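Notebook B, p. 112. Complex prediction, attempt 2.
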Amino acid sequence: MSSPKGNVVFVLLLVQAATILLATVGELLFMSGLFFYALVPLARAVLLITFGSLALRGHRGALIGLVVLEALSLLGFVLSVGVGLLPTLDFTPTLTGLFTTGFLPIVVIVYCAQMLTRPKSKTVGVAA
Amino acid sequence: MKTLLVGIAPEHAAAFVAGLLALVIVPLLKGGSRSTVDRWAAALLGYSAAVHLFLPLGHRDGALLTAGMLASGILFAALTWRAHLGRGWRIGTAILAPVTVLAYLINGEDADQVGILTALLELTAFGLAVATTRRVGRVFGAIGTIFAVFLAGAVIWVESFVAHQAGSTDAQSPSVGHSHEGQHEHLARAQAGVIMRPLTGDHHATAEQTAAAIALANATKAAVARYSKLSAALAAGYKYPLGSRTGMDVHMENPEYKKDGRAVDPERPEMLVYAIDGGKATLLGVVYVMEKAGEPGVAPGGPITRWHAHNLCVSLLPPGIGIVTPYGGCPSFSVTITIAEMMHVWIVENKDGPYAEGLDKKWVSDYHAAHGIVL
């Protein structure tokens, strides 16, 4: 049985994994196709999907792992805004960027936190 | 905030506001399903319904496209209601969402940030339909969702770069590189690796602007003739870029000229572009770069002398550079930056003229083979 919120988290993580994979292609093109540039993003995408699958069943370790990973995403967003304050650089906010690097991690963190703090009997509910 | 709004084409603004309102209102509707998945699906489908129903307000398209938008909006609205009630919305969504995105891509509809976000939210609804139920098979649904999001983003990305590189066929201008008149204007709003200020006035240069653009190109060509030999550029303080020192577009940067407080000075261009290969170098042109990021470039030639900036990903593990995707994303452990605005001026005679965004690599290779100067 999977939790409804776990299902939403799972799908959001699929979307996030796809955007990471796409960005990895962009970096590979820029960095002469050196494969080691793909290792960390690939590992992250696999981790997201694995944790997302485990989160469907309310696995606490996976939920905590997702909170950590999404917190890192938010940290990257905040750092980008901060670096953009330098005179030689700028930060360009976009609608899609706000969704994928701001809204999406926040929703995943909130849902994971709610699933972590609820009694297990309620976390594992009716299939969506 | 200003750059955020640049990504929204004015003719899409009403549809976007309607979509946002739907995102807020649909989850508040009473008497619906209490399932989180159903409520999310209803909100996302409601957004798409509102966007498609309101798009004709801003667009001046033909009857067929307008009818298609309205039909799509009505179908999304019906699915929204079914998702709200928690009844049989999955199969319809699994068909309608990807078909709509596909039609959007095939139709050649140029993407702005509203279009890209709408496609992303529709594909998220698709994911909710196919990856949250065992009937379709979660594994296949998950793979399908990742594939669909990746593919749609890749196509939008390629289209935006192709349009950016496209040479102008405008006979009235000595090469615009990209006039973005009409359809192509949206691609300035995709904000996927290339950031441009959309043209607000006349897309065609005035006689004065054309004369100024020609004068700048000629002055640039005359001033940098002294750098025909790569050794002269190195002696003047131009540095090789990080990474490869050979290729068909090696950008040599002069750190002193980048911070000299001068903009568009033919005597002190911030970058020189060479083709370097086979023990020979060919000076192709220059890149003028503004000193501060976010500062608009000086454009004496109006729509001919258009500037652009790049939004890039700076990754830390391992250190590297990438390009921001149409989804606004970067690889893991990266920060997003936008560098100062820049403008190419080519000194070699090419079919797209001195202000083309880029030169065809095959053409450069042939030109370099014929004109390269031994290092």
